[in-house]
User: Fold these one by one.
Assistant:
Number 1:
Amino acid sequence: MLWFSKKRHAPAVPAVTDQIVPAELPLALDAGLFKHHCGKLLESAAQDGGIENYLSALRAKQHVFAETLARDHISTADIETLLGSVFTARRRVYPALERIGMTRAAALLRDLAAGAMPPALRLQNFVDAMPGAAGMDRESVKAAAKVRRAARDFAAEALHFSDPVRYPLMSRWVWDETTQSGALREFVRGNDALREIPFNNSPALFEGARVWLAGCIAEQGIYRDVPLWIDLVQAQAYTAYFRSFTEGSLGADFARGVTPHEQLKKLLGIDVAPGMSPRVKKTA
């Protein structure tokens, strides 16, 4: 289990995040919006067995990632299991990993979790290892770009869940500078009136937002499993945003005929219990 200090004056995220120095956010986040999303999270979870069920599922997911990525040998089955718990990647990345070779993919995952380079470079190296477009036609280029975006999400989750105290979750649904969308936008007061949110995709920005969220969570008297609470509140904010639109970057598969709490679990990859057959698409 993950614990943070119980002293209210101490930072909620501990000093082990020394590789990522939190940036000062260029635009303030709103505590009132945090309380709104946190309240909705608890309300939704109460209809689905309670918040502890979500935390337990995330702990189980974290254990699988941490245990797997610490192995000297990561098998193809291991990679499939990890990929199956990343909703935004499970339908696109497996064929790309097959093309580069599962031995190389395993080495990339080990470097991602325990490499000597800064986290941003480890993430980028994983994405850059993905195969290029099959041809120069527009559809091939678009398909390759989608694979790279999904690979970024897979890498972001692998890094985060290898050590969620040390690394923030840096998936596109948390924040994507290119599309100007993500959970972090939902904590900005008056975001609908802003054409641009001045957030970048740097690990420092994600960590700065995470420190702010950890402080808000501490004010609710919560000091246990704080990184996982942050994931849940961000997922709640994003699913609420997504449900307000009929289409989005995750596609109809995410939104069709499911409840808010089902969407939240799907986004966090806890809709499939550990040990069950993951829904990984193996053909391009």
Number 2:
Amino acid sequence: MYIFTKNTQIICLSLIMIGLIAIGYGFYSASKTHYSDDEIKEKVKSISYNLASTKNSQDINKAKYDSHHGSKKHKFSDLFHAVEKELHCHFSEEEIASAESIDDVIYITKHYFHAKKQRPWSSLFASNLFFLMISLAGLVWLAVQYISQSGWSASLLRIPQAVSAFLPYGGIIMLFIIITGALHWHHTFHWMDSSLTYEYVVEESMQTDHPIYTNEKGDGIISNANYDYIIAGKTAYLNIPFFILRAIIYLLGWCLAAFLLRKFSLKEDLEGGVKWHNKMFTVSAIFIVFAAVTTSTAAWDWIMSIDTHWFSTLFGWYSFASFFVSACAVIAIITIHLKYKGYLENVNENHMHDFGRYLLAFSIFWTYLWFAQYMLIWYANIPEEVTYYQIRFESYHILIIIALILNFLNPMLLIQDRDAKRLKGQVLFVAILILIGHFIDVFVMVMPGTVGTHWHLGFVEIGTFLGYLGFFTFVVLRSLSSVPLDQKNHPMLIESKHHHI
């Protein structure tokens, strides 16, 4: 029986506290300096007027000359710097250079404050998504062991069972994020904004807080300047009621499978025989089919719809490969932790070898899908596809390089050799780096579509990740300590005990 020690609990609770402080600070800092769109518009115009009035005629003539000759950068850089000083914000050189009018300056300023308000929500979403999907992928890993009649893993199946225990917790938070998005508390899923999907608006309602939108032309109805025909064309699938319903179906199906596999496993301990093992085989087979569909559709819903104009037929596979290899890393880390603590006597270097092969194989698979998706989009050069990579390669290229190093070069260089795969310390080191690398991968999936170029990897993001790490670890280890660590009547325990490769 695994003992969840007080020292480990204290570490987990300390990480949770760091996470709560980080996310609390994120929401506090976002609300402290937030301006409404109307306030930003008036302030930028006022700053522009004051700036123009303080210039002497020579400066004004020079600005007119530059404007006439297409050189607007210097003119608007002064305005941007004045806005930065007055509103305590910051703009990139690309944003300053892209401004062609005062309306562009207003739009860029609005975008900055929208991104700042969105930052804590995006951090919460990225960390919750990462650990929720690891929990799901751990359940997939468990189901695969049953449907493949795998013998080598029979001694450690309690670990993926415990990993899947996080599903209800992450699922509830995911539903909270989705519902609050539908209530417009945040803009993680910007397609939820009804102004994007209606072609017309009632003119009299435009100056109110809640404009009335419609798709029917009539008296007093004018064209909606915010209408997006691409997003409007996807409303049959991307609409709030159906979106929430799908999320509930996903989470209920996943949690039910996790509950049944754990329940039947404990029944097997008590009664023996193959009755419960056969039931677990059946549940696993049904779940794998369900997961094959829902892992892709959940990726479309929760990740790909953030960049609503973009789509990729590879994305479901790509995102699942990232989460699956992360789950393999988590299972390996927990297994090695238990070995260092003196548990799992039947687990030996041959099991470590298999973990090493999992990590290496699926790291290569993830890299293949990453490159295949990128190459096809680059080669086709279709505007609605290349925009996905454009912002990432321009503003997130450092993180992309780090992710490729950690997720591909790291396992390729450190555990490709047979002997390296059999070393607990080396597999542990590689698994930890893979886990970090794939969180960065998820970060790059989420942030460009939610905060754009105004991204940070600071206290809010790292603190939230650490908080979730503590939360996830606490749930998993508590689940692990509540049942016997070793299964008693699994029909392949002897094969696992004598596993040799």
